[in-house]
Amino acid sequence: MIAYLFPGQASQFEGMGKDMYEASDIAKEYFEKANEILGFRISDVMFEGSMEDLKQTKVTQPAVFLHSYIKFILNGDKFKPSAVAGHSLGEFTALTANGTLNFEQGLELVKIRANAMQKACEMAESTMAAVLGLDDEVVEEVCATIDDIVIPANYNCPGQLVISGSKEGIAKAIDKLKTAGAKRAIELQVSGAFHSPFMEPAKVELAEAINKAEFKTPAIPVYQNVNAKKESNPQAIKENLIKQLTSPVQWTNTMKNMITGGIDHFVEVGGNGKTLINFVRRIDRSLKTEAL
Questions:
Q1: Which of 59, 66, 76 is nearest to 107 (CA)?
Q2: Which residues are catalytic?
Q3: Angle CA(2)–CA(5)–CA(70) in degrees, nearest 5?
Q4: Domains of the chain
Q5: Which of 153, 211, 220, 273 could be cross-linked to 195 through a Cys-Cys bond (beta carbons 3.0 to 4.6 Å apart)?
Q6: Angle at 67 between CA 108 and CA 35, to 5 degrees
Q7: Tens digit of pLDDT for each residue in 32-71?
């Protein structure tokens, strides 16, 4: 059985999507529609912008969504997936690909999410750090000892966990994690602490938009970040999507549950085509993986 995986932030790259725009009238149509919905020419930023330009949350999120979704539209019929999943932002792409949302709805929600998160980031000094080479339990224990907001944010794969928190709290956690034996513990170049209580103001704004939107019963289930379980009920999908913004991404358990559910072939759609596949390989190297 096959599953499509859709990446989130940090999978952007300079010139993303330019090849599709130049080679396909369908891709061109989607890019121009996106420029209209977003109110600025995101295609120009994607094709000509620097990595610095692409790092802005309000640009990164719609750019990654667009790149993955258009790649799915152009290549999606190569396989017949039994399920989809997306990492953080990628969950919105997954829900658009499986028919829960249409393209316009998906991009509009991503636009609202990105702008709301950007505002939340500007309200407090917060950041994230990647921790490599420690068991999840050790990282959790260290986070619990910090006298500030520091929590696990992305359970990416065994031996790789991303933490979120205040600038000061993350600095303390990095020191303690290195002492605890982490191979690496480094602050990430992000604009704030995603998947943490710092995103609560953004969650309120996004919840309003999600609750107003019409979610359809999808053609194939989505495995959701919040609980790592597959879901097809539109109301449950909405509730989990709202919780996602302030909750950890349970990616390791998502992959394990997909494997237990019979998925043995994972296809990463969009981004640099390596991030999510590498996480799968860290869990089980015998599985078939490829990128569209």
A1: 66
A2: 88, 195
A3: 105
A4: 2-122+197-291 (3.40.366.10), 124-187 (3.30.70.250)
A5: 153
A6: 45
A7: 999 999 999 999 999 999 988 888 888 999 999 999 999 9
